[in-house]
């Protein structure tokens, strides 16, 4: 895999096709969809730090200088303010036809083309969408020697993924970028203490205490479904920098 070297900082622009990503996550994990829309600053922070050593070498920082979100305000108005509070420019894209077609695609493409001549030279264009209509855009960005990073969800057209410099794996994004928010939700809730009868002289003293619940190790499903059960050992965290992407492939 080729590594891009000679960088101290990578200047990035981020474009989010909210409807496309949210509806896909809603199908497979409604809780992840809610996390995606409610606390975008968490997964933005994850993207800023993801796989930098693998892609660019040691000591490189990714700075997302521009953040754009395109959403349908008639359906997703509740998520508009969280994106604004996370320093996004939100472009309202209401339906323009009776079939619900919005103008997200054309808005996103025009903004990317404008940013090619921006006074800040963006090294990297990050597009969160699995819409194959963006394939010509990715090709054009490559022609201008800009690297492209995409999050494609669900089935992705081979042409779309081949046109990108690299892409984030959907399962990694769900498990790592959105997991923090869901874990915090669990930790913020009081942990129920199972009722135990008073100890007698014959009861073992060890039963009077239990191990503290870890603040970071429980998975959401285990913590929500069986909170009274002893916490299972934490699975080792995935180090996103152990493996790097190859151009056009998932990582």
What is the overall pLDDT average? Answer: 78
Q: How many helix segments?
A: 12
Number of strands: 6
Q: What coarse outline follows from CA principal-axis ratios?
A: globular
In the predicted model, the low-confidence regions spanning at least 5 consecutive residues are 181-196, 198-247
- Largest sheet, strands/sense/barrel: 6 strands, parallel
Largest sheet, spatial ordering of strands = 3-2-1-4-5-6
Question: Level of helix content?
Answer: 25-40%
User: SS-based structural class?
Assistant: alpha/beta
Q: N- to C-terminal separation?
A: 12 Å
Radius of gyration: 22 Å
Task: Provide an overview of this structure.
With about 250 residues, the protein is of the alpha/beta class. Helix content is about 40%, strand content about 15%. It has 12 helices and 6 strands. The radius of gyration is 22 Å and the shape is globular.
Briefly say what this structure is.
With 251 residues, the chain is an alpha/beta fold.
List keywords for this structure.
single chain; 251 residues; alpha/beta; six-stranded parallel β-sheet; 12 helices; 6 strands
List the helices and strands and how they pair.
Blueprint: E1 9-17, H1 18-28, H2 30-38, H3 40-49, H4 52-56, E2 61-71, H5 73-76, H6 80-85, E3 89-92, H7 104-115, E4 124-128, H8 135-143, E5 147-151, H9 158-163, E6 166-168, H10 170-177, H11 179-188, H12 220-225
Parallel strand pairs: 1-2, 1-4, 2-3, 4-5, 5-6
């Amino acid at each position: 895999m080729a590594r891009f070297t000679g960088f101290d900082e990578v200047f990035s622009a981020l474009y989010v096709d909210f409807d496309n990503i949210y509806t896909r996550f809603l199908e497979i994990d409604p809780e992840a969809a809610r996390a995606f829309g409610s606390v975008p600053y968490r997964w933005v922070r994850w993207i800023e730090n993801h796989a930098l050593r693998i892609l660019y070498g040691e000591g490189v920082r990714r700075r997302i200088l521009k953040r754009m979100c395109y959403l349908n305000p008639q359906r997703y108005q509740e998520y508009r303010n969280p994106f604004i509070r996370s320093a996004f420019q939100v472009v309202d894209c209401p339906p323009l036809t009776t079939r619900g077609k919005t103008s997200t695609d054309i808005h996103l493409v025009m903004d990317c083309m404008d940013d090619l001549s921006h006074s800040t030279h963006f090294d990297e264009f990050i597009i969160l969408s699995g819409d194959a209509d963006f394939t010509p855009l990715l090709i054009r960005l490559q022609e201008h020697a800009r690297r492209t990073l995409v999050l494609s969800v669900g089935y992705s057209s081979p042409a779309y993924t081949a046109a990108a410099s690299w892409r984030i794996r959907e399962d990694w994004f769900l498990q790592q970028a959105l997991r923090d928010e869901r874990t915090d939700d669990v930790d913020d809730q009081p942990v129920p203490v199972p009722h135990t009868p008073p100890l007698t002289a014959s009861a073992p003293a060890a039963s009077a205490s239990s191990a503290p619940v870890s603040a970071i190790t429980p998975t959401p499903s285990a913590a929500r479904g069986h909170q009274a059960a002893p916490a299972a050992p934490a699975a080792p965290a995935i180090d996103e920098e152990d493996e790097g992407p190859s151009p056009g492939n998932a990582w």
